[in-house]
Amino acid sequence: MAIARRRIYTPEEYLAREEKSEIRHEYIDGEIYAMAGGSANHNLIIGNTQFALRNALHSKPCKIFTEGMRLRIEARNIYTYPDVMVVCGKIEFQPERNDVILNPTLIVEILSKSTRHYDRTDKFVAYRQIPSLQEYVMIDQDRIYIECFRKTKSKLWTLESYQDVNTKMNLQSLDVELPISALYEGLTEE
């Protein structure tokens, strides 16, 4: 019995298809994968995170992007849509594009049951290949729990976790603190 081969797409083919698509897709080394839709809490946490970051960064040279902006991880031949990205300083776009960022300082992903494992493993491995990335934050949407991975000067990644809604998360790469309560504000009972 013959086994069907998956079609391998070039980055250019992926980008052309994505411009016409009504849903978002990740591109991983030639293969295209539809991205899962988010829950109400997923969406609320993204909005809360963007709002908290905007308030904290109002006088800093940083820009905040949410899930509609694409990220290119050149070292892994990946295009993806992080839930939240922050770029400090000059934004580097993929040549000839203004919708593909190359140099995030901070990436935030909201964890769901279907993405939790991938966000913690393969996606984090890929994100660590981005030279500009200083912090990777994963916010659990089902309970008060946040993991903040931070790159040290010796290029090791350390973990700081938060479980108390009454504390603040320290984002050293941005030199700001965000109240955990602000990130989880207004969530629905699911």
Number of helices: 5
**The CATH topology of one domain:** tt1808, chain A
How big a fraction of the residues is strand? Answer: 25-35%
Give me the side-by-side strand order of the main sheet.
3-6-8-9-10-11
* Biggest sheet character: 6 strands, mixed
CATH class of one domain: Alpha Beta
Structural class: alpha+beta
General form: globular
- Helix fraction by DSSP (H/I, runs of at least 4): 10-25%
**Nearest-integer average pLDDT:** 94
Terminus-to-terminus distance: 45 Å
CATH superfamily membership of one domain, which one? tt1808, chain A
Stretches where pLDDT is under 50 for at least 5 consecutive residues are none
The secondary-structure element order is HEEHEEEEEEHHEEEEEH
Rg over alpha carbons: 17 Å
CATH architecture of one domain: Alpha-Beta Complex
Count of DSSP strands:
13
Describe this structure in words.
The protein is built from five helices and 13 strands. The protein is an alpha+beta fold and 190 residues long. The strands form three sheets. A six-stranded mixed sheet has the order 3-6-8-9-10-11. The protein has a five-stranded mixed sheet with strand order 2-1-5-4-7, with helices on one face. The chain has a domain at 39-69 and 83-183: tt1808, chain A.
How would you sum up this structure in a few lines?
The chain has 190 residues and is α+β, with helices and mostly antiparallel strands.
